[in-house]
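INTERNAL AUDIT FORM
Audit reference: QA-55
Scope: verify that the stored structure record matches its stored sequence.
Auditor: D.O.
Record contents follow.
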Amino acid sequence: MLQPLKIILLTVVFAIAVAGQTVRRSAMPFAAGETLSYEAKISKIIQGIAVADLVFTIVRAPKSDDLIVKAEARSKGTLLKLARYSFLQELESTIATGNFRILKTVKHDVQKERVRDSEAKFDYEQRRVTYSESDPKEPLRPPRSIASELVGETHDLVSAIYDLRLVPLTVGKSFTVRVSDSGLVYDIPVNVTARERQKSVLGNVICFRLEPGIFGRGRLIEREGSMIIWITDDARRIPVRSQVNAPFGKVEIRLRSAKNVK
């Protein structure tokens, strides 16, 4: 279930950020207090099985102007009843608002009885991201560590979606994005392929359709598949729907509620 879980998370928490993008705080279409909630469904033999809830909340970091984005993915419904599989992922991404750079990622990952805690630190002076993962059930075991070089603008899986909301989009635009996940760094091609109307809890909204290439050898998911993401073409720049096709089925994630939108 590990690969399907990672794909479910990436379908919403996809890492897309323009290298070298500089952002002014006044341009941010979001602020502390915003909460976006999504529901994930998987279909293959049975249509539309609800498997997870995902919630993203922005808070102000204590004693600084930094932002913290808290993300939670929790299993639900048929996945618990039929597959007897449960998971919980909690992530906290600390972001410097002056240049919108990721500073630190803290993650708590539970998959049935398996538990892992991890932290990634981004050192821009040393041009290095250092990732450390430990098992809280075995405190005497040394943590697993990975370090990679930082080149240009890099984001984690959570901060990147918010950076995307700051990037100008036009149909036909193509660019490469830089993603750090579990201490490794990936370059991902992204194409803006259409401008389409989508039904959502925000109403009938016009959205940009983006197709990031996260599948394939040497990429985030080393399997065959495809991903589409729709983000509103308005001042809010909210992702309202994501869809991925993978060997185990189709994942559909839709926005369920948006609170305190700026």
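Auditor finding: record pair retrieved intact. DSSP finds three helices and 14 strands in the chain.
Action required: none
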